[in-house]
From TrEMBL:
Pathways involved: Amino-acid biosynthesis; L-threonine biosynthesis; L-threonine from L-aspartate: step 4/5
Protein's UniProt name: Homoserine kinase
One Pfam family of this chain: GHMP_kinases_N
Intracellular or extracellular location(s): Cytoplasm
Lineage: Bacteria, Bacillati, Bacillota, Bacilli, Bacillales
Functional description taken from the UniProt entry: Catalyzes the ATP-dependent phosphorylation of L-homoserine to L-homoserine phosphate.
NCBIfam families documented for this protein: thrB
Length: 306
């Protein structure tokens, strides 16, 4: 039996959490796994049905990222064969592209012995993704709150414990570019003040783990959800449902179309059972917040790649 040289594991993520647009991310219990084998060419083999049809050569996002990192550091990426499995659905707003970018960074970091810092990984991931929320959550795990100015990302990282998630995942895809196309080019000064105030409230509530207050802030987003709601009937449906005592709030996951409900610890299974009949065309499942980010697994130990 041939064993991989190492395995890369990267969690998926949700972003925005309502008004935290392009600046808040949370790692979730869906994963991208990559077994890395030596080879005489670059080849990517999908091992799960969800990844069927992804490019197998260096045009794959994993290799594109890895090769870009190698070029940035002036090193040569060795050929390798990747066996990839994932339960992160594509084009649903659950961080599939960000997880691939972080995995590509980890791939070059290990194969080329770069010993990259977390900040270096974050900066490169943010450049490639265009913002830091999903890549930051997949890299660090837990909750990340930060900003990216086009060159350097900064964030605050915190573990989250007293929370579960119920994900409502539609069968249809929504490209981020389409979801961004409906956003207004500008907001008035008054709207910007109101929107940033709600976002500030969300951040303060998250860092205190005051989930009732955080859930209320999620509903008052002015930055993106009111515009994207026309694409996503599931979000509209949640707005019309009576308040649930175990549900703190809900928010579009990234650009959507998945919607996440933020639920009292221990209550997610019952909320899932109650909500599933209302969303028969969707996967309705329980997810957990994961406080561990990307990691590299060798044959004899698990290490955090630094």
């Amino acid at each position: 039996m041939t064993f991989p040289m190492f395995t890369i594991q990267v969690p998926g993520s949700t972003a925005n959490l309502g008004p935290g647009f392009d600046s808040i991310g949370l790692a979730i219990s869906k994963y991208l796994h990559i077994d890395v084998y030596p080879s005489d060419s670059w080849h990517c083999e999908a091992k799960s049905a969800m990844l069927e049809g992804i490019p197998q050569d260096e045009s794959n996002l994993l290799f594109q990222t890895a090769l870009a990192v190698a070029a940035e550091y002036g090193v040569t990426l060795p050929y390798c064969h990747l066996e990839v499995t994932s339960d992160i659905p594509l084009a649903r707003g659950l961080g599939s592209s960000a997880s691939a970018i972080i995995a590509g960074i980890e791939l070059t970091n290990v194969l080329c012995g770069l010993h990259m810092t977390m900040q270096e990984k974050l900066d490169i991931g943010s450049v490639m993704e265009g913002h830091m929320d999903n890549v930051g959550a997949s890299l660090y795990g837990g909750l990340v709150v930060g900003t990216y100015d086009g060159q350097r990302a900064m964030l605050v990282h915190q573990q989250i414990h007293q929370l579960e998630l119920v994900a409502i995942i539609p069968s249809y895809e929504l490209k981020t570019s389409d979801a961004r196309s409906v956003l207004p080019p500008t907001l008035s000064y008054a709207e910007a003040i109101q929107g940033s105030g709600v976002s500030n409230l969300l951040v303060a509530a998250l860092l205190k783990e005051d989930w009732s207050l955080a859930g209320e802030a999620m509903k008052r987003d002015l930055f993106h959800q009111p515009y994207r709601e026309s694409f996503i009937p599931e979000l509209r449906a949640l707005r019309t449902m009576p308040e649930h005592p175990d549900v703190y709030g809900y928010a579009l996951s990234g650009a959507g179309p998945a919607v996440l409900c933020y639920v009292r610890k221990g209550a997610a299974a019952s909320v899932q059972a109650e909500f599933a009949p209302y969303f028969s065309g969707c996967i309705v499942e329980v997810l957990q917040v994961v406080n561990e980010g990307s990691k590299v697994i060798t044959h004899d130990e698990t290490i955090r790649s630094l």
